[in-house]
C-alpha cells in the first residue's frame, strides 16, 4: 500500500481564536487517494470479526446511537463485488459512532498493474465545534462526526474509493481465502480506514521530512522513541533534515493513552523504514510489529494473498477514539467584546459518546491574565450547562475556557480545543470589556473574472468583529460608472454575508470591467469601519464553437483565455510571448487557464498540439497519474457539459516526460525538494493529443490547462506556446459539412447568384457543376485551389426558369444544393 495524502491549507483563516472558526479545505480537483498494492505471498491468516459486529448481527439493531451509518453509491460493481464491499462497510458501521451519514462513492474499474484499490477523503476541515485539537485537519467523515452536522454537501461523497475490476479477488464473506486470491473485504476495510482518518500526510525529499500545513490530526500524535512530538517545530522544523531523520528512524510511535491501554502500556509503533516509502511510511502500523495474523494487522502496509482481516483491531479503533471517533464535544459560542460592564453568563451544551463525569464541567476564567477562577457549571437541563463570570468592570480583558470529562476514558476535554506541542498551557477564549475601537475583519477571495453565464453571481464575504458586525455592503461600478451599493445578507448563525451581483441595475456583458470593494461596519457605539482594496473583474463569455483554432500568442487581441495563475507574457530570456504559469508556482495550489473558444468534434482525429516546457515536481519512479506518489502534475482537460465536469484529454504528466525537463529540475534543488531550475526556449517540446479519442463526435468541448501542486515541493512551472487544434477532414463533402456546408444566395435567383463555401484546410482540384432537372450539366467551373471562405459567382440568366442542382467537389465527393431560377 502506498499513500501520500496531500492536505491543503485553509482557504479561510480565522481572524480570532481558531476554536471559534470553522474552515474547510477542499481540492478543486480530485485529490490523490491511498493506493493499495498486492503482496505476492500467501499468508493463510484470518482474523475474527469484531464483537460489536457480531452483536449487531445477533440483535439486528441498526442506526442506534452505538453505530454509524455508511451509504455507498456503487458504480460498475458486480453483485459479488458489491456484496463484499458492503460487508466491509457493515463492519466499520458496527465499531464507529457518528450521528452523520458517511457517504462513499465506490467505483469498480480497471486500475494499474498490481493495484488492488484506492480510497481517500474528499475534504478536510479544521476547528469545528468540539474538535479535539485546534489548528489541525480532520478528514470530513470524522469532522462531521465531531461537529454533529453535515459539512460536505449531502450530494457529495465524503470518501472516494476505486477498486480493480480485473484482479484475482476472493468475494466470499467468510474469510476463507484460497491461495493466490486477494480478499476484497479486507482491502475495502483497509482503504476505508484511510478515508476515515488513518493518515499522516508526511513526505520526504532529499533527506528532508515534511508534514502537511496545517497538519492532519493523526500526525499530531507522532512521536520518536524519546517521546518528542514530531510536529513540534521547535524540535523538528517543517521541513528539515532533522524531521527527515525521524521519519526514517524505524522508531516512530503514535502517542495515545487510549491505544496504550489495549497494548500493554506500549505506544503503537508506526511504519518508518530506513528507506522512506512515499505514501506508505508513517501512515500505517509497523508490519514487523503487527505481522499477518496479528489482530492489529489490518492497517499495516502490506496485504498478501490468502490473508483475511475482517477486523480493524483494537489499536486502530483506540487510535481513532483518540482522534475523536469517541468524543465529548463542548458546544459553545464565544462571548463577544462588550462595551458594558456586567456579569457574563457562559453557556455550553455537551454532546458525548459516553457519560459525563459528575462535577467535571467547569468554567475557568481570569481577568487581565491574573489568577484563574474556577466556577462549577450548573445544568440547565439535560447536558446544557452555564456558569457566570463576575462583573470585571470596564477596561479589562477576560480570558476563559470550559472543561469536562467523561467516565469511559477519563479524558478531560476543553473548549477551545488545545494543540500546542511545545506549550503546556491550555488555550483560552478572550473578550474585552470597554469602549470599542477595533474595526471588523473582512475575508474575501476577490474575483478576477466572471462569466456572463454565471449571472446572477452570489458574492460571499466573511466578516467578523469583536462586538458584532452591523452591516456589509458592496460598492461597485461597471466601466467606471457607479451602480447602487449592494447590501449583503447574513447567512443564518454564521459570519458569512452574501448577495447577488446581477443585471437588475443595468446590463453586464462580455468586455465589461466591474470594479468593487467591500465595506463592513460594526455595532459599536462609535461605529468602526473596514474596507477592502478595489478589485477589478473582467466580464467574459464563451465565443462561438469552432472546428479549429490556432494561436501563436504573440498578438494581445483577441483575448481567448481566462483563469488564474497564468498570464500571456514574455519573460526574460524568451523571444516571444507565450502562456506562462506563475514562476515559481506555489505549493498547495491549482492553477487553471481556460480557452474561451469551444471546439466542435466533427471528424476523427482532432489534432491538438502545442509547444511546452514542464518544470513541475516529478513523482516517485514508476508512479502513475493520479496516485498520491505522482505529486505535482500538469494536465489538459475538456468538458462537454459547459464546465460542470472535466475529463483529462490524456493522463497528466510532470518533468519526467522529457529528459531535459527532468535534468533541469534536478540541476538545482533545495533541502525542501524545491527546484530553482529555470525554463529556457531551448526546452520547448511539441506535445500532440487527439481530442476525438476522448470526446464523442458532434460534441462541443471546452478546454483548459491545469497545474496541480501538492504541499511537498515546487518549481518554475509550465509554459505553453503555438497552440494548434484542427479537425482532420478526410473528404471535401465532410469538410464543407463541418464548416457549415454549401450555401447559395440569393435563392431564388433571377439567374445570377453566388456559391459560398468554407474550407477547414487547403483543398485543390475542385469543380463547380450545375445540372438541370434532367441531370444534364449546364454549367462547369474549375476551382484550382480553395482555403477558408470561398465565394463563386454563377450566371444562369440565359437558362429557363426551374430548379437546378449545384455541386462543389470532386467526382464521387461533392456537396450539393438546389437553386430556383425565377425571372
UniProtKB/TrEMBL annotation:
Domain of life: Bacteria
Span of domain Secretion system C-terminal sorting: 744-821
Transmembrane domains' residue ranges: none
Keywords from the UniProt entry: Signal
Any Pfam family: Por_Secre_tail
Database matches in SUPFAM superfamilies: Metalloproteases ('zincins'), catalytic domain
Signal peptide start-end: 1-21
A molecular function GO annotation: metallopeptidase activity
Protein name: Por secretion system C-terminal sorting domain-containing protein
